[in-house]
Design brief:
By secondary structure, the chain is α+β, with helices and mostly antiparallel strands. The chain has one helix at residues 23-35, and strands at 4-7, 11-15, 21-22. InterPro entries: Ribosomal_uL1-like.
């Protein structure tokens, strides 16, 4: 299957018959995680992990290159 790349400011995805991810949903999830904890007296680091199902990254045609600007 040939991938169709979609890349707009509000939607980042590589479509293989799956679903797209809206970057505002990612931003909202990160903001919710940060706001649910008490205020820290140091700069926090946030790590984000995204599971990719049924994507063979060994195949060069199916590699994903996308950027999401976080707040």
């Amino acid at each position: 299957m040939i991938a169709k790349e979609y890349c707009r400011r509000d939607v980042i995805s590589l479509y293989y018959g799956g679903e797209t991810i809206a970057s505002n949903k990612i931003n909202q999830a990160i903001a919710d995680a940060l706001n649910s904890k008490r205020e820290r007296k140091f700069v926090e680091t946030v790590e984000v992990a995204i599971n990719l199902k049924d994507v063979d990254l060994q195949n060069p045609q199916k590699r994903i290159s996308a950027e999401v600007a976080l707040p």
